[in-house]
Amino acid sequence: MKRIVLSVLLIAVICSMGFAQTADSLLHSGLAFYYRGDYDSAIADFTAALAIKPDNHDALFCRASAYYYKSDFDPAIADFTAALRLRPDNHDALHSRGASYFYKQDYDRAITDYTAALRLRPDNADVLMNRGSAYYRKGEDDSAIADFNIVIRVRPDHADALYSRGAAYYRKSDYDRAIADYSAVLKIKPDYVEVLYYRGAAYYRKGDYDSAIADYEAVLRLNPNHAAAGRDLESARQRRAR
Length: 242
Prior knowledge:
CATH topology of the domain at 192-242: Serine Threonine Protein Phosphatase 5, Tetratricopeptide repeat
Oligomer: single chain
Largest sheet: none
Number of strands: 0
Number of helices: 14
CATH architecture of the domain at 192-242: Alpha Horseshoe
CATH superfamily of the domain at 192-242: Tetratricopeptide repeat domain
Helix content: over 70%
Order of helices and strands: HHHHHHHHHHHHHH
Structural class: mainly alpha
Strand content: under 5%
CATH class of the domain at 192-242: Mainly Alpha
């Protein structure tokens, strides 16, 4: 799953009112560091702003976001939680805390946060995609497929959703639907090596060795060092010869 793009609140926050000027300046400078990718300096400035006003929601949210992009998920979760105590309906904080839990492999808490975010914005494709991915990681394929279905209805060319739904169908041994989704991805990204490989694997499981061989050969043309495709190509050739 791709990292989420954190909230437009990080842009809008510079217009926030109600701060002492020093805290406001620290927030501005922290955001400047943040957008340059200097997360340590951003965190230092946001922390200084919070020393002036500990219940500064925007500084908490921004510091959480900086921790998130450093993959420092425990303090990110702590700050997102503090921000949510101040603004429980902050969709972006719920989404971002859910993503932090996801990367800690705490899929139950991730799903809880994604679900809360979806109550606020039911058709948010990014949150649906991420919740579907959490369900998939838990092995709850039907729930994952349900979320990916909604994403695909909203964005029919969403390659990641198509790929992920195909993977869930594959794991359910529903190879025809898996092949259909992998084929849809390949119309968008014809050289997507892993999708070619897994479509070949789905054909192999169906006993369609000619199609499997064609996909494995395509994989090896793109990546001659793809060991699994080389191994499975040989197996498909042997089975076809029987």
